[in-house]
Amino acid sequence: MSNVFNFSAGPAMMPPAVLKKAQEELLNWQGQGTSVMEVSHRGKYFMELITQADKDFRELYNIPENYKILFLQGGARGQFAAIPMNLANNKGKALYLNTGHWSATAAKEARNFTEVDELNITEQIDGLTRVNRLDFSDIAEQYDYVHYCPNETITGVEINEIPNVGNAVLVADMSSNIMARKLDISKFGIIYAGAQKNLGPAGIVIVIVREDLIGHARKATPSIWNYEVQANADSMINTPPTFAWYLCSLVFKDLLANGGIDTVEKRNAQKAALLYDYLDQTAFYHNTIAKENRSVMNVTFTTGDDQLNAKFVAQATEAGLQALKGHKVFGGMRASIYNAMPVEGVEALIAFMKKFEAENA
Ligand code: PMP
Questions:
Q1: pLDDT tens-digit profile of 245-267?
Q2: Ligand 1 interacting residues, C-beta cut-off 6 A
Q3: What is the CATH number of domain 17-257?
Q4: What DSSP letter does each residue of 209-231 carry, written as one string?
Q5: Could you read off the pLDDT of 266-317 as tens digits, one per residue?
Q6: What spacing in Å lies between the alpha carbon of 76 and ligand 1's midpoint?
Q7: For the segment 17-48, what is each residue's pLDDT rounded down to a tens digit?
């Protein structure tokens, strides 16, 4: 094992045990003398793999039976378009809750397909960003669905409480916090997530969709974006990203073998608490998100000085703490501490931050 810790926002670090397992069976998967990526997706072994992956993911995340799990391509952005194509066909209008870059980008894409009302639900108080509204039950039912992003990856703004949309359909982009903690899936119409942060490698996107929402796509919906077509074809209307799917299946197995989501949730809370507690007691670094909306997955901080931030990132990289540069639209630093990040990674980061502070304050 190297002593490098990778804080990339995505594609992000994978569980080392998963990479090792993939390495071990790379040349000879299921005793076939070939790798998983060289066999038919419709063959016996791959079909067994996807059946087991569906079962494991359901068990891990407690997904009710009346939900289908689709493993698709085109990333989360593909879903920005797929969702209105599949859902916005009754009232012809959708509500998008804006908490930052990704929810705004989803709304922009949706406008290509439907009328969109967009509500900014954040405010700045004393230099801190907070989410100020989560009850939409009075307005939600005029819309085909309400879309939000419970974890804005760039700024690190997270919404823990599930928005109240009455009987309307709630859609969540959980690309950066899927499976970070237990969740009542039954509150959602659709949950989708690009895999490349908490679930596996880039190239595959998971869509958890309530069955009654399948079958209402508009006529011009491309087959690969049509939930009904994909659900009826085991997410294989075309050749699927088999290697990415395989790696996701290994991640699910690894999580199940290591205590499941309870363990993940506790470890995530522990990691975030360590880092935010440190940030709260130093005047050298600042986090600009209100406590109740601080992300457990993406912890942003800054020294307030661009040159010092650049020096921090360069020296951290040299010390084996990789990919801490913040997103270009937000600046500063960002430590993405997804499920696969061990507590030791966060401890190493804090030790480095203390040292850097002592040398530069
Ligand atoms: N939504 C969120 C919350 C994200 O973090 C990202 C990527 N960082 C996306 C959507 C876009 O995902 P993709 O690149 O898979 O299309």
A1: 999 999 999 999 999 999 999 99
A2: 10, 75-77, 102, 149, 153, 173, 175-176, 194
A3: 3.40.640.10
A4: EEGGGTT---TT--GGG-HHHHH
A5: 999 999 999 999 999 999 999 999 999 999 999 999 999 999 999 999 999 9
A6: 5
A7: 999 999 999 999 999 999 999 999 999 999 99
Backbone angles phi, psi at 305, to 5 degrees: -135, 115
Q: How far apart are CA 268 and CA 272, in angstroms?
A: 6
Quote the distance between the C-alpha of residue 319 and its chain's center. Answer: 27
Q: Provide the residue ranges of all domains of the chain, joining segments of one domain with +.
A: 17-257, 261-360
Q: What is the average pLDDT across 337-345?
A: 98
Fold of 261-360: Aspartate Aminotransferase, domain 1 (3.90.1150)
321/278 Cα distance (integer angstroms):
17
Which H or E run includes 352? helix 343-360
- What tokens appear for 41 in the block? 């997706």
Going from the C-alpha of 27 to that of each of 45, 54, 202, the distances in angstroms are 15, 25, 21
Number of H helices, E strands in the chain: 9, 15
3 confidence band (pLDDT: 50, 70, 90): confident
Instruction: With beta carbons less than 8 A apart as the criterion, state whether 175 and 338 touch.
Output: no
Closest CA to 148 of 211, 100, 206, 198: 100
Assign 189 to helix, strand or coil: coil
How high is the mean pLDDT of the chain?
Answer: 97
Structure tokens at 178: 């899927």
Q: What is the CA radius of gyration of the chain?
A: 21
Q: Which amino acid is at 75?
A: G
Pocket test for ligand 1, best of 109, 159, 175, 225 (most atoms within 8 A of CB): 175
Please name the residue whose Cα sits nearest to atom 4 of ligand 1: 175
pLDDT at 55 over 70: yes
